[in-house]
Design brief:
alpha+beta; Neuraminidase; 32% strand; 4-stranded antiparallel β-sheet; 163 residues
């Protein structure tokens, strides 16, 4: 969902795109145990969280996103999301780039250096994606880190104390 704050107009891009939804039969492990989706009174299902991790690049030109229930980190130029026109949805879909495997993740944050921090519950960690060289590295990993979500500068400062 894109909203033009100046006009109040809104529109959708990538609505229904498979990259914004959980992968079929995605089964992450946390604390060595499989994590299933569930509803009271229903049988267990595969984890069904779609696009949840989301952040803008430090310059605002790129949106990074990925489903919690999925393996991949994606990006798209924000110009393609702002576009409105007869071909804008097709252009947005073709503008999505698969960057790297990330595992289950929840909560993304960008720093002023352009690094993307991702909560990584499967590893009890916060990992870093560097768009400049397409590398993924561990920022902090500790048994006390449990299902990192909703990253912020204050949260990342707390993790620095674990280092």
């Amino acid at each position: 969902m894109i909203v033009d704050l100046a006009s109040g107009n809104s529109w959708r891009h990538l609505n229904g795109d498979s990259r914004t939804h959980a992968e079929l039969q995605f089964l992450p492990f946390v604390w060595g145990q499989p994590v299933y989706g569930f509803m009271a009174g229903e049988p267990q299902q595969y984890l069904g969280f779609g696009a949840d991790g989301i952040t803008l690049s430090s310059d605002g030109e790129t949106l990074f996103f990925g489903p919690t229930g999925g393996s991949y980190l994606y990006s798209i130029p924000t110009a393609l999301l702002r576009a409105q026109g007869p071909n804008s949805e097709v252009r947005a879909q073709s503008g999505v780039t698969s960057l790297t495997q990330k595992g289950a993740s929840d909560g993304f944050e960008t720093d002023s250096n352009g690094l993307i921090y991702l909560g990584h519950p499967q590893q009890n960690a916060v990992v870093i994606y560097n768009p400049a060289n397409s590398s993924m590295s561990t920022f902090v990993r500790d048994p006390r880190v449990n299902w990192v979500d909703t990253l912020s500068g204050e949260y990342l400062s707390l993790f620095n104390k674990l280092l």
